[in-house]
UniProtKB/TrEMBL annotation:
InterPro entries, alphabetized: ARM-like, ARM-type_fold, HEAT_type_2, LisH, RELCH
Higher taxonomy: Eukaryota, Metazoa, Chordata, Craniata, Vertebrata
Record protein name field: LisH domain and HEAT repeat-containing protein KIAA1468
Leader sequence segment: none
Keywords from the named record: Coiled coil, Endosome, Golgi apparatus, Lipid transport, Repeat, Transport
């Protein structure tokens, strides 16, 4: 059977209305002569007309009027003394056979107006193939011919839409049938149809989009590029690169040139039909008289053949009647028909199929309509006519399917293969997954490859945009199919469906393909798995723009890595890992760590290359980054490589356990204690769970016991994998740590996390005996090295914060905390006494301060510095408080921080007192308790108003710098009542500064502070009393010291004065924003140009445009 496209035109309409019971179809009368011609005959009726039934004749007439007409049949019936009413279906059939098309159209219209639609006429006039114009080529012998020569078909009034391209869209909604109902066609329009066959309906939307696509394609192919561009602009709602955008679920038709040459024949409906030409006048036919005469002779020859065939069929029917009569006495109508068909020679039938006859006979027998031939004497013809009143129909596609009851598994599969393409488009979109079992079973068991391919195509196109649940259902079906049919058919039948949709416009469909590649990986031939499927996924990873698709691709790649066994693909797998790790989407990167890297690591473990190739390759790339990044490290790439190393820690530890001297002695048993919950870091995915990597928790527990015992008592002799970790991996990692920039908080944080997971995975004994000693050997924290500047360089590098936060914080018992406190105290002391930079200590405090668990510990370290005998150490402790205040809760600030700062603010050494000012400023910026703020305010006031500090240039610089930093974010009252008035005093005092270097230092810092504060909303009173006077004092200094700053200050003063003068606007607004006033074109131009020329430190200028948080 020919395959059916489920998204093309369909024959699945419901059966027509039944005839009224009181009508008698005289066409079935046994007295009307021989049966109709074979179906292969060019004069046979349309495919949807009633076929001739067994033992009944047809009253068909030839186009020339030969044969018995309907009126003659009626007359002969009346002559017999029985008045019979002629069925309207008989009349319609006769009109169509005799080519009275317009009369039939009129008849159809009148029936519609009377509310009695006739299926025969409806089907005929709704079929555009019956009215298409044929090209002017000479007719073939089996072509429809008229009395005077070849008949031209009338031009179809249907356009592309009449072919019903979008009848079944893949979202389950039918496009509305927009044909003009015949009942609404006026008489004048029917006359016009006869005289002007080119009349067309208005163009419809789908027709327009289809034609637009074809026209644009034609313009491009023929180098009309400018016209194509203009045409595309005028139709900007359509994507001319995708035929799917048109909205028709059919393959793209040929181009316009091919359509023109073929006269549209390639788009004809696939329904079985016989074209019936509209009758035209003889004079209207093309061609000369000689050609017409030849046609007439041909027709006469065919008529003679038909008459001869008719006589042969009459003889066959007579013989058949005798056979049937004798077999009916045995009580089996079906047997009689079958035997009758077997005895008749095949030439009697001229290729006429008897299948339908046998099937109808079978239906009659199973319908419980039986006759006892022993007691009744019914003629076969009468019995057949009587049974015809059982209202059954097997003439449509659906009727034929219903009439054929499957009698074997194969016939069931064939029936499902025929019916499913018609069922799927009519099922609601939300319920189409219910059809998946039927589609899959049929695709598995159907004998025809073409039908199986069509069914799998339906499966992958079942839902336009399948959601997660629907995709899971389809994937489950694909896996079940793969298990049933084996690798060969999966490769031949399922993979092509994936390949077709790899570039589908809907991401959900591409997502289905990506997921299917992973789900089918275990069931594919290994050669295909490591070549075609891997290439498909690699292409999607590199080209697909949807994050969710690339995420699914990465997961499927991980599954492929779990089944691949071609060692030559290692390099490709490594490149895929790096490519996916560099993906901009976080969800894709997470999928790499959760699925791909664990699977790839498992494969490299089998190959023996995890610690010999994979990890060394990543370390080499990190070292290359550090070498190239002397002037700027690419922190993103460093994060990519380091995160990959971190994901490889669990499989590396598994290699150590599985290659240990004790591995063969590990036997799980019930007495082994359970593994502590906190023994290992929480895995990112189940694939990084040590129990899953090893096999089970019991075996892992046994191995861990032997592992700890081996490390503590027996050593590492002969343990090659662990010796590689200790002697090669750790030293290389510590060397890399010493080369990263300590001021990069991101790098410090990444390496701290890495060492923390590394130490927690390898265990406490390993950390204490193998990791800590190597760090301590490098750091050399001892008293004799305190004053030696040489040898302390390592303390200024990132090794200090990474050791403190990545190694010493792995375990949180009392001895571990004491070790951490002691290390930080020693570092603080050593750096302070050595006058070394404090960046490494600051990085340690920032990293630890992010976790509230360590706040008490850090305060303990700082208190050690507060009470230290060295002023240098006390000064360092004061500066460290600034870093800690922001993260500590206010209770600790009140109880531990402020008392310590008050103590330091009265220190005998002035440098210690100055070092407390940034911490006090940070408290003013972050704390909300009024009592606490008043204490801090009083301490700062003492620094500014105490006579002993009047000449302390360093103190004034620190206060101005602190005011500029915290002023924009501090409480407004504190800013207006304290910060701005004291800045005014400092600016005024600086005018009388005799030392020019000190004067310029103060002026620069004041300029930065005023620039930062200019963004704040300040009351008019404060502007007039403090802000403007302070700016004028600063302007006076800048006139002499820095003309470039003087221009900006002049603009600020001018704009501020203008705002103050506009009191009406000021009163309405309640406050003035100095920053918002700098919008005049002249002022803005000068401001921006001069800001670019400044060469001083821009630490405060960075906050110029920063709003109050």
């Amino acid at each position: 059977m020919a395959s059916v496209n489920p998204f093309d035109v369909s024959d699945s309409e419901e059966e027509a209305e039944r005839r009224p019971n009181e009508t008698v179809d005289t066409e079935r009368s046994p007295s009307e002569g021989a049966p109709g011609p074979p179906q292969g005959n060019p004069f046979s009726p349309p495919a949807d007309a009633e076929p001739p039934t067994l033992l009944l004749s047809s009253n068909r007439t030839s186009p020339s009027g030969e044969g018995m007409s309907v009126s003659a049949a009626a007359t002969s019936t009346m002559a017999g003394g029985v008045e019979t009413r002629v069925s309207v279906d008989v009349i319609a059939a006769q009109l169509l056979r005799d080519q009275y098309i317009l009369t039939a159209l009129e008849f159809h219209t009148e029936l519609l107006e009377a509310g009695r639609e006739l299926p025969r006429l409806r089907d005929y006039f709704s079929n555009p193939g019956n009215f298409e114009r044929q090209s002017g080529t000479p007719p073939a012998k089996d072509q429809v011919l008229g009395p005077g020569g070849p008949l031209n078909r009338a031009g179809s009034i249907s356009t592309l839409d009449s072919l019903d391209f979008a009848r079944y869209s893949d979202d389950g909604n039918r496009e509305s049938d927009e044909r003009v109902a015949e009942s609404e066609v006026a008489s004048q329009e029917r006359k016009n149809f006869k005289s002007s066959p080119e009349i067309q309906e208005p163009i419809r939307q789908l027709e327009k989009r289809a034609l637009n696509f074809l026209v644009n394609e034609y313009l491009l192919k023929n180098e009309y590029k400018l016209s194509s561009i203009t045409f595309s602009d005028e139709n900007d709602d359509q994507d001319f690169e995708l035929w799917d955008d048109v909205g028709l679920n059919i393959p793209k038709p040929p181009d316009l040139l091919q359509l023109y040459r073929n006269g549209g024949s390639t788009l004809s409906s696939p329904r079985d039909k016989v074209d019936v030409s509209v009758g035209v006048a003889f004079g209207d036919l093309p061609g000369n008289c000689v050609q017409q005469s030849e046609v007439v002779q041909e027709l006469e020859y065919q008529l003679n053949l038909l008459n001869s065939e008719k006589q042969s069929l009459l003889l066959a029917l007579t013989l058949g009647n005798d056979i049937v009569s004798s077999l009916l006495q045995l009580g089996s109508v079906c047997t009689s028909v079958i035997l009758w068909s077997e005895q008749l020679p095949s030439p009697f039938f001229g290729g006429w199929e008897l299948t339908g006859v046998v099937e109808r006979c079978t239906i009659m027998m199973v319908s419980n309509v039986t006759f006892s031939c022993h007691s009744r004497k019914l003629s076969p013809a009468f019995q057949q006519a009587l049974l015809s009143f059982c209202r059954m129909c097997s003439e449509s596609r659906l009727g034929a399917e219903v009439s054929r009851i499957a009698d074997s598994e194969e016939s069931v599969m064939l029936m499902l293969g025929r019916c499913l393409p018609h069922i799927v488009p009519n099922v609601l979109l939300a319920k189409r997954e219910e059809l998946i079992p039927l589609i899959l079973c049929t695709a598995c068991l159907h004998p025809e490859p073409k039908e199986r391919d069509q069914l799998l195509h339906i499966l992958f196109n079942l839902i336009k945009r399948p959601d997660d649940e629907q995709r899971q259902m389809i994937l489950t079906g694909c896996v079940a199919f793969a298990r049933h049919v084996g690798p060969t058919r999966v490769e031949a039948e399922l993979l092509p469906q994936c390949w077709e949709q790899i570039n589908h416009k809907y991401p959900e469909r591409r997502l289905l393909v990506a997921e299917a590649c992973g789900a089918l990986a275990p069931y594919l031939p290994k050669e295909i798995r490591s070549s075609l499927v891997l290439s498909m996924l690699q292409q999607m990873l590199a080209e697909d723009k949807a994050d969710m698709v690339r995420e699914a691709v990465v997961k499927s790649l991980g599954i492929i890595m779990g089944y691949i066994d071609d060692s030559d693909k290692y390099a490709q797998g490594f490149e895929l890992m790096l490519l996916s790790l560099g993906d901009p989407s976080e969800r894709v990167v997470n999928a790499v760590h959760q699925v791909f890297i664990p699977a790839f690591a498992a494969w490299t473990t089998e190959l023996g290359t995890l610690h010999t190739a994979l990890i060394p390759s990543l370390l080499a790339r990190i070292e290359k980054l550090l070498t190239q990044g002397e002037h700027g490290l690419d922190e993103h790439k460093l994060h990519v490589f380091l995160s990959a190393l971190q994901s490889l820690i669990p499989p590396l530890f598994a290699v150590v356990l599985q290659n240990a001297p004790f591995t063969s002695r590990a036997k799980p048993h019930e007495d082994i204690p359970a593994i502590e919950v906190t023994r290992f870091p929480r895995p990112a995915s189940p694939l990084q769970d040590m129990a899953i990597i090893i096999g089970n928790r019991e075996l892992l527990s046994s191995l861990l016991l032997l592992y700890d015992h081996q490390l503590e008592h027996e050593g590492t002799t002969g343990w090659e994998s662990l010796l590689w970790v200790v002697n090669q991996l750790l030293p290389q990692l510590i060397d890399i740590v010493g080369r990263i920039n300590v001021t990069s908080s991101t790098c410090v944080h990444e390496f701290s996390r890495f060492f923390w997971r590394f130490c927690r995975t390898f265990g406490k004994i390993f950390t204490n005996t193998k990791v800590k000693p190597q760090f301590q050997e490098i750091l050399r924290l001892s008293e004799e090295n305190v004053d030696a500047s040489a040898g302390n360089g390592i303390l200024t590098k990132a090794t200090v914060p990474i050791y403190a936060t990545g190694v010493l914080t792995c375990y949180n018992q009392e001895e571990d905390r004491k070790l951490l406190v002691g290390f930080l105290e020693d570092v603080m002391t050593t750096l302070s006494l050595s006058h070394a930079p404090l960046d490494s200590l600051k990085a340690s405090f920032v990293e630890l301060g992010a976790n509230p668990v360590y706040h008490e510990l850090l305060l303990t370290v700082l208190w050690y510095g507060v009470v230290h005998t060295s002023a240098l150490v006390r000064c360092t402790a004061a500066r460290m408080f600034e870093l800690l205040v922001k993260g500590v809760n206010e209770t600790l600030v009140a109880q531990r921080v402020v008392p310590a700062l008050i103590t330091l603010s009265s220190d005998p050494e002035i440098s210690v007192r100055i070092a407390t000012i940034p911490a006090f400023g940070t408290i003013m910026e972050t704390v909300t308790q009024k009592e606490l703020l008043e204490r801090v305010k009083m301490q700062l006031a003492s620094f500014l108003e105490d006579p002993q500090y009047q000449d302390q240039h360093s103190l004034h610089m620190e206060i101005i710098r602190t005011f500029g930093r915290v002023g924009p974010n501090a409480e407004p009252r504190f800013r207006d009542d304290f910060v701005l008035p004291h800045l005014h005093k400092l600016a005024l005092a600086n005018n009388s500064q005799s030392v020019e270097s000190k004067r310029i230092d103060i002026a620069i810092h004041l300029f930065e502070a005023y620039s930062a504060l200019s963004c704040c909303f300040i009351s008019e009173e404060v502007i007039v009393n403090h802000f403007l006077p302070g700016l004028r004092c600063l302007h006076a200094d800048m006139e002499q010291l820095s003309p470039e700053h003087e221009v900006i200050l002049g603009s600020m003063i001018k704009e501020c004065e203008i705002k103050v003068e506009n009191r009406g606007i000021s009163d309405a607004q309640g406050s003035i924003s100095i920053a918002s006033s700098l919008v005049g074109e002249d002022a803005k131009t000068k401001f921006l140009s001069k800001m670019g020329q400044l060469t001083t430190s821009g630490a405060m200028l960075a906050n110029v445009f920063q709003r109050k948080k």
